[in-house]
Amino acid sequence: MSDKPRTPIGKIVVASLIGTTIEWYDFFLYGSAAALVFPALFFPESDPLTGTLLAFLTYAVGFVARPLGALVFGHYGDRLGRKKLLVISLLMMGGATFLIGCLPTHAAVGMAAPLLLTALRLVQGFALGGEWGGAVLIVSEHGDTERRGFWASWPQAGAPGGNLLATAVLALLAAVQSDEAFQTWGWRVPFLLSGVLVLLGLWIRLSISESPIFQQAVANAEPSRSMPIVEVFRYHWRDVITAIGARFAENVSYYVLTAFVLVYATTEAGLSKPVVLNAVLIGSAVHFFSIPLWGALSDKLGRRPVYLLGAAGVGLWSFAFFPLIDTRNFAAVTLAVTVGLILHGAMYGPQAAFFSELFATRMRYSGVSIGAQLASIVAGGLAPLIAVALLGAYNSSFPVMLYVAGAAVLTMITVFVSRETRGRDLATLGAAEESTTR
């Protein structure tokens, strides 16, 4: 076990929050650009809706790479530790995002432009597939059992934090630039800014200690010949299914609320880009602060009741969300996004602690990562694509409402039949112990 003093939980939380905020900034920036500028710059030969569909297809590619990132980062995170892999994921994500800001467009290099864009999106997805599990685990494994839901929810707040930062930068540029200037060069600025943010995140992450629970597990365990992912599916296959099902509505609803809304509000409702971006900006700010509150509530009531409330809430709210957007009223649009994100937070807040409490320490990084990221392919990755396709096929938002509601039902069933995990001791939760309860 390392002699390095244990880092206080507050510093661990800050390090994880800043790191995840930067990585989600990079990831969400791409989603916003896919809705607003990439169709014209990288797919100019298509009609507007088809161009948007193609841009979101490259967006979805990032989600396809996430399970591969989860496998690789999970394997080495369970063998080498959480901290080293978090540093690598941050460097990969930031580097890919910076390079996107340097890319030539279709007008300059033709088909090479979307191909290069897709390749860098794959690197983003690979890095994020390994980031999420490590960030929530290093907090979960440093924190105490009684407040794990609260502490572990802070890295989760990095998602709206990153979206808030990305949307704020885009909104500022859209407000001070003409559409022509933004399309020509302004869109590159937030991508290039990632280089500075990564240096900040790297400095902070290098200053924290490794997870004490992981270090203790390494000191006490016999060397394993099996890969962690093999042990995950041997001892925790039901838990992987639980994570996938629980993640489904959370992922689908989030990308409809934050990415697809940019398409729907600007093309169908006829709202200007600054209006929609400002609504998402306000909603993301409220979302950021609501997530730790939901995490704290899960420490009192349990993970399952809070999670079920969130899943039911987003399913029902989807039927109010689009009619509010259709009013073209800024207050109504802001209300639609904000309430949707608050309800989403009821799933996202407890999620980190819930998933961490499912898996044994020596396979926890692999289990948490692969369970969450397998869901990301069919849920979050396809959500904007499916929503755009449904809108184009039916010329109505109602099928999209049914899509979100269906995802909510699937998650509710999964969480309802799962066991409560609040109060589990992560240090003593082992594969042998878990296998006896299966």
Helix content: over 70%
The geometry reads as globular
Question: What are the low-pLDDT stretches, counting only 5+ consecutive residues below 50?
Answer: 431-438
Largest sheet: none
Task: Describe this protein's structure.
- The chain has 438 residues and is an all-alpha fold.
- It has 20 helices and no strands.
- The chain has helices at 9-36, 38-42, 48-80, 82-100, 106-109, 112-140, 148-156, 158-176, 179-186, 188-205, 212-220, 228-235, 237-268, 273-301, 303-326, 330-356, 364-381, 383-394, 398-417, 431-435.
- Helix 4 runs antiparallel to helix 10.
- The protein starts with 8 loop residues before the first helix and ends with a helix.
- The relative contact order is 0.16.
Kindly summarize this structure in a few lines.
The protein is mainly alpha-helical and 438 residues long.
Please give a handful of descriptors for the protein shown.
mainly alpha; 438 residues; 0% strand; 81% helix
Topology record:
Elements: H1 9-36, H2 38-42, H3 48-80, H4 82-100, H5 106-109, H6 112-140, H7 148-156, H8 158-176, H9 179-186, H10 188-205, H11 212-220, H12 228-235, H13 237-268, H14 273-301, H15 303-326, H16 330-356, H17 364-381, H18 383-394, H19 398-417, H20 431-435
